[in-house]
Amino acid sequence: MWSELRNLREGVDLGTPPRDGAAVSLTVDGKPVTAPAGSSVMVAAALARCPVPKLCATDTLEAFGSCRMCLVEIQGRKGFPAACTTLVEPGMVVTTQTARLQELRKGVLELYLSDFPAGDVPGGWSELHETMQQTGVTTHPYVAGENHLQAAVDASNPYFLFDPTKCIVCSRCVRACEDIQGTFALTIEGRGFQSKVVASQGECFLDSECVSCGACVQACPTHSLVEKSLFEGGEYRAQSPQA
Amino acid sequence: MPNPRKPDGSVVTTCAYCGVGCGFKAETIRGEIVRMIPWKEGKANHGHACVKGRFAFDYWRHADRVKKPLIRASIAEPWREVTWDHAITHAAAELKRIQAKHGRGSAGAVSSSRCTNEEIYLMQKFARVALRNNNIDNCSRICHSPTQFGLSATLGAGAACQHFDSILQADVILVVGANPTEGHPVFGSLLKRRVRQGASLLVIDPRRTETAESAHCRADVHLALRPGTNVAVLDSLAHVIVTENLHAAKFIAERCHPAEFEQWRALVGDPRYAPEVVGPEAGVDPAEIRRAARIYASGPNSTIYYGLGVTEHSQGSTGVMCLGNLALSCGMLGREGVGVNPLRGQGNVQGGSCLGSWPHMFTGYRFVTDAAVRATFEQDWKLELDPEPGLRLPNMFDAAVAGTFKAIYIQGEDPVQSDPNQNHIVAAMKAMECVIVQDLFLNETAKYAHVFLPGSSSLEKNGTFTNAERRVSMVRKVVPPLAGLEDWEITVRLTNAMGYPLHYDHPAQILDEIARLSPAYQGMSFALIERCGSVQWPCNPQAPEGTEVLHTKTFPRGKANFMLTGYVPTSERTDERFPLLLTTGRILSQYNVGTQTRRTGNVAWYGEDVLDVHRTDADARGIQDGDFVTVTSRYGETRLRARISDKVNPGVVYTTFHFAQSNANAVTSDLNDWATNCPEYKVTAVELVKVPTGKPASSRTPASVRA
């Protein structure tokens, strides 16, 4: 019971919430693996130690299927299903690494990188950076076009900042605010290229309904939402009551 | 922004704040704490956190931290820095001098629920072996002592029946006098999750709290009762249950004493508890009382969570018993998704309660008057113990004012700010010859102290905390103690200086001693907690890895007891001079008396205590939003900034007590629970007068106040 809470493990991200259904046997990259019924193919791949690259998925949130990094091939199925939104079935044969899949993931990641501060690609340690390493994609072929690289940082919250230039609009923060915290302070405003994360009605974080629980910061895969205390000198100093 | 620095170390520990007891990973860079990350394997929080535990930790190295022991001959003199040896020797000499002059009973000690189990245990041991009396109390005296009394009386164990996750099996959630989304935010999030999944929510609270109404979480029934009428309303719920035959006859026959049930049924079935009678008295719609009772009784799984809104009343213990009776009558005990569960304010209130820090009880709630129990402690401690129960905290202060109580050793508490009727507490402090305060900061109480022993924050020590679900979790040292000693080491030194030899190499040895002397902790050890992550008591050979749900087959006394819970209105009444009722509580971003959170960035959200006033009452007094008002009660007065709010009903005003400057407890009464002396913080008759504009009410810069 409560496996989605109790079977979480520190240092392990299965990608979608753990389940406790009956064991289902399948193969991932030739390796036999069993996963509880109700698990995603992403969980099965993680259990088989063949982790699928991912950005919008994390095991504290239900699958969302937006980033298109976790595409896999499944024998007998057309196209390239997302590992996060596809559930395991008995006898399923899953392949996570093929030239075609690498090509697709490279294309997706290059598009993300075309609107990400190039200077921050080296030296980073966010999940996006880990995914770049995992897939070997750190550059993109595009000329400068319309982008979000001049967007202003919201540093109104005493403890964390929101740097929209690093945001990939994966909705993990929005979903964490809704599903984990239950406050519904964040939303995605606009559509397509214009879509962006906003707090309340486009207010700064401090003036919004945000209760500063940190679930969004914890969920952010790009350090777009990040603790101020991790920046040298930029640390928020405690304030004396009489100050 | 450039890339952030990457932490190079981490230590898993337990949050220092509320009774949820979240697991955290304290991450460091070259030994410096840079962030607190909620621990995914924490069984109380599953990787979630709130603004306090997650971010408000910088108080630990605030400039106000005291790093050297301080002494002075009188409170008129400035403090003098001394060595640890000097301070300890001086404190012990003073205690011995006072006891020699005024008698053994003239000194006592108070333990803190912000300290570890091991430290709380040592405080009561100090009183018993060094002061040689039972003058030991703990701060749950002023918050959850009625829980211990009321739940023991009905169910046989003064602790939460369930674990937090159990709420995900509940169909009906009854929240009484608690606001978990602000007071216990991580549990509040779990509760909201269950409500979004479809559980019914019933709220009994004078205020329209965030728990009662927020995005995608709205109470099916909210009984916004008049402060002080809990028992009447709870008896009225019971009235509906017994008169409409909604009770669980089979459960009552098997698990309770049927004769007691009949007596109780006769009481609550009396027409004076009919919703149509109680409703007008309590200011709630009788039909809503009936509806709430029917929803609760229908379950199939109904659970109760409650807080200080139940306990901090002149009938606090009776209110807790009402909840026990209610659960018994509907058979809502002994399985997942049901139960009666106190939400504990401070991180280790449950531990404070379990570990013998009581004037009448040893660890495991066993009486000091019981010769057999006393003998086991005498054998272990190799000392004859005082068979007479000692003074309760409020009685210590009364005795100080009367001149018979002269010395007190206070661990991590600030009674001058947190205890009711401040003027009385200050008089008590001034009347004592030796006040020893052990704390992180020179708090309000330290103004009246003669010895100040600088304590350590929970980031600077090893030990365990017991959270509101009886879960014992590890507190691990992340950085060395700023003043050199962990709190347990200070108490060990003082005990030795008093002439009783005491030695432990590590808190693990103290937990071993606790396990040896306390049935519920029998199987506990640092090794077991390390292996399991955390362990819920009772932990014994029958339950080697602890117990999640209590009362599954039997109650501790075999059968449970229905207690008679007649409603006796508080003597604190409104009249023409004091026509409004003041009730107090907390806010999300601040914690208790604020010594920690006021010293963090959390002041960005709440920089001062404000008084919520309904527009009707404000208009009648010419008060506008943001005006300062004088709040006067029969006991004292203070000034607060008013906020016009529809969260309170007309006739009720509400404030928090997080800031020393607001002196909220200057106005609260010294009435208290009939059984446990827990103060009646929640009901004080007051009047408001607008402070003429142009006259500054306080020297503080007004900070932004958020609704």
Structural features, described:
The complex is a heterodimer of chains A (243) and B (707). Chain A is α+β, with helices and mostly antiparallel strands. Chain A folds into two domains: 1-109, Ubiquitin-like (UB roll) (Roll); 160-230, Alpha-Beta Plaits (2-Layer Sandwich), CATH 3.30.70.20. Chain A has helices spanning 3-6, 41-47, 99-113, 127-135, 172-181, 215-219, and strands at 23-28, 31-36, 73-74, 93-95, 160-162, 186-189, 196-199, 225-227. In chain A, a hairpin with a 6-residue loop joins strand 6 (186-189) and strand 7. The longest helix of chain A has 15 residues, at 99-113. Residues 235-243 of chain A have low confidence and may be disordered. Chain B is an alpha/beta fold. Chain B has four domains: 9-61, N-terminal domain of TfIIb (Single Sheet); 70-142 and 348-507, 3-Layer(aba) Sandwich (Rossmann fold), CATH 3.40.50; 145-342, 3-Layer(aba) Sandwich (Dimethylsulfoxide Reductase, domain 2); 580-690, Beta Barrel (Barwin-like endoglucanases). Chain B contains 22 helices and 28 strands. In chain B, the strands form seven sheets. Chain B has a seven-stranded mixed beta sheet, with helices on both faces. In chain B, strands 23-27-24-26-25-28 form a six-stranded mixed beta barrel. In chain B, strand 20 and strand 21 form a beta hairpin. The model of chain B is unreliable at 696-707 (pLDDT under 50). The interface between A and B is large, with 49 and 61 residues.
